[in-house]
Amino acid sequence: MTNDELKKHIAAFMRDYSIEITPHDAAKLDAIRAELAPGTVVYVAHPPGVPIDDIVTLAGQVQKLGLKATPHVIARKLESKDQLERALARCQELGIHNALCVAGDITADKPAFNSSLEVLQTGLLAKYGFRQVGVAGHPEGSKAIGEERVEQALRGKAAFAATAGFNMYFATQFGFEPQPFIDWEAATNAKGITLPIHVGMPGPAKLTQLAKFAMLCGVGASMRMLTTRTSAMASLLSAQAPDDMVTALAKYRGNNPQSRFQKMHFFAFGGVVKTARWANAVISGRFVLNSQATGFKVEDVN
């Protein structure tokens, strides 16, 4: 693959990226909207201490801006089936047809559901017109629920997808290294699982920020990343971008057209606007590959 071909693969893989916001970004929606193409998928995360009604309201504001709001539906935070139904009915009223349904690590005092599959099996997402629903993918496993339950959940969600009444895909945990994602795709292929994969990765951020979120989320590659990037360790405040991971996965997808890697999803730990500007620069071709074609640098973005 020539460098020109690789650059085209990188830009193409990035073109339909999705991005995540939190309630802390509510005051910045106009600035965020200015950086995103119409119809961009914007996940609305549900952090601790925030009522689900507030998440739905924020998702409605995102949707009204011409973006595709994708609120998190966290099974173990739900206190009743009625609470879930009210939230989904309100989403329908707001024109929201996308959701990310995950189990979650933090639970309500008396959670009504123990897994995302239990939420899916209520039939309420289909009832209220959802069309695209993401479920969690764990290329590096999950310390919170263990290998056996991860495997059971994986097979259960894949089986449910066959009769769901809407499109489903895997939205993966974020990672710093491409190989676990490539291996996980191969492993799920071997099990006959065919759901598309949206690859999660952190947007440009300081190394300290990446380390903090990696340890909180139990991402196994985090410590390898920290110990192998010795030049970055010299300045923990230096900005890091996922160019090497983007390059490796774009090259892999270019050499394997049957790959289920459908798009990239950015966790904007370094800021939503900053991440979007970086991604947009890549899409428009404003980047230069390094001498080994293993990564790249974009033009300066503020």
Description:
With 302 residues, the chain is an alpha/beta fold. The chain has one domain (3-206, 241-285): TIM Barrel (Alpha-Beta Barrel), CATH 3.20.20.220. Helices cover 43% and strands 19% of the residues. The protein contains 13 helices and twelve strands. The protein has helices at 3-14, 29-35, 52-64, 81-93, 116-120, 124-127, 146-161, 179-190, 207-217, 221-228, 230-233, 243-255, 272-283; strands at 18-21, 41-44, 68-74, 98-102, 132-137, 167-174, 197-202, 205-206, 239-240, 261-267, 287-289, 296-298. The strands form three sheets. An eight-stranded parallel β-barrel has the order 1-2-3-4-5-6-7-10, surrounded by five helices. Strands 8-9 form a two-stranded antiparallel sheet. The longest helix is centred in the middle third of the chain and has 16 residues, at 146-161. The two termini are 32 Å apart. The model is unreliable at 229-238 (pLDDT under 50).
- Quote the CATH topology: TIM Barrel
Strand portion, in percent?
15-25%
CATH class annotation: Alpha Beta
Strand tally: 12
List the uncertain runs.
229-238
Q: Counting H and I runs of at least 4 residues, what is the number of helices? A: 13
Strand arrangement in the largest pleated sheet: 1-2-3-4-5-6-7-10
Overall spatial form: globular
Q: How many domains?
A: 1
The secondary structure category is alpha/beta
User: What sequence of helices (H) and strands (E) makes up the elements?
Assistant: HEHEHEHEHHEHEHEEHHHEHEHEE
Distance from first to last alpha carbon: 32 Å
User: What is the CATH architecture term?
Assistant: Alpha-Beta Barrel
Report on the biggest sheet: 8 strands, parallel, barrel
Quaternary structure of the protein: single chain
Mean pLDDT: 88
Tell me the helix content.
Answer: 40-55%
Radius of gyration based on Cα positions: 19 Å
